[in-house]
Structure formats: structure tokens, C-alpha cells
Amino acid sequence: ASVSSDITNHGVQLYSYWASSCSYRVRIALNLKDIKHEYIPINLKKDEQFNIKYSDSLNNMKQVPTLVIDNIILTQSVPIIEYLEERDKAHGVRLLPNDLNKRSQVRQITEIINSGIQPIQNLSLRKKIIALRSEYEGSKLKNSEELQAKYIAKWCKKSIEDGFDSLEKLLCETAGIYCVGNDVSMADCCLIPQVFNAFKFNVDIKKYENISRIYTNCMHTKPFKDAQPNRQPDAPKLSKL
After folding, report:
1. Distance from C-alpha of 116 to C-alpha of 161, rounded to nearest angstrom
2. Do the Cβ atoms of 215 and 195 come closer than 8 Å?
């Protein structure tokens, strides 16, 4: 399908970080909608999101992703994905089903991940957890990267497992090949990056039959494979993610 005559995909810019799961969601959606774009890396580990040129003009929350498209600036991954769908539903893959019930299921799965799992283990919260614990545990924790990594790994693993326990039950009712039936959707755009985070923190994905199957199905397709972290231009050459 071709893009509608009144819509152009020229000058689309994605401000992203290779390891950001929220950026990963948008990368998948852009691929599924077949929207070519310029990739502009924002290194969260080097705090480039706090650069005044970025935070003041593009993203006041000092986060990624940010998408510049149609001469407007969009932030927050889920509204970005919904915008990409609504601006031209006929182009590329439909990210939200026509069926009201299925559309509600897609949004429910999306929000379980977006609001109930990912924020509990994202980079900014992990930093705050260590800062708070350091206040009580003193220099032993503050000066030990090994101990910090141990605490963070335990926290993130438990947070993801708690979320996946609930999500797996819902997917028993909604899933086919993908999260909702046999058509890929916004829910899959959100699930796959969260699975990558789960791998990072040693969650045993095999115990989640539906999540594991959907992950395998998605990762056999080019839009998902091309969006994965280690294929991004700012990814470390030896990245295992």
C-alpha cells in the first residue's frame, strides 16, 4: 500500500537510545508502518537527555523516545504509536484492530506493560533505588558497583516476573499467533521490548508459554528483528542484548 497523498514521510526523526525499551516499541511500530526515518541517538548512560538543547526544545521530561513527524514533536511511546496508526491506517500494518473488543484488549495488554511493568524497572527508577538505599546503608553500597548491580538485578527480575505472571493469564484468553488473535498489534510492539528486558535480568521466559510463543513468532519477522537493540547504530559492537 502507498502512503495517502496528503501524508509525507520526509524528514521523520526518531530520538532514541539503543537499549531503551520505550524507544524499541516505536522502532517496531515505524517498521510495521513502513515509515523511513532518521535515527538520532541520545545516550542515557551519558545523561544526554538532560542536555538543554534536547530537553528544552524536544522533550521536557528528559526521556526517550521523541519523534518528529508531520512538523510536530511527539513524546511517550504509546501515544506515538497511536498517532502513527491514526495518521494513515491503510499504510503498513494495522496496529489497532477495527473490532472494539480486540482494540480494548490491545490497549489493556499495552497498559499492563506500559504502566504496570516497565516503569518499575526502568533506568531512572533504578538510579533512585540505589540512591535511597545508599542513604540507609552508607558507603558500602554507594561505593560498590557489584552490590548495586546485585540489588538492581533482584529488583528488576521480581518486578518483571510479577507483571508477566498476570500478563500470561490474560494472554491465555486473547492470544493467537500474537498478543490479540492472529494479527500483530500495538500490544506486540510493547511486549517484545519487555521480553528483551526480561532476558537482561535472567527471567526464565520458558515458564510463560504464551509470552514465549509470541516472542518467537514476532522475532521471525523483519520489522521486529530490525528494531532490536543490537542492530541500532548506537549499540555497543559487542552488545549481548
Report:
1. 11
2. yes
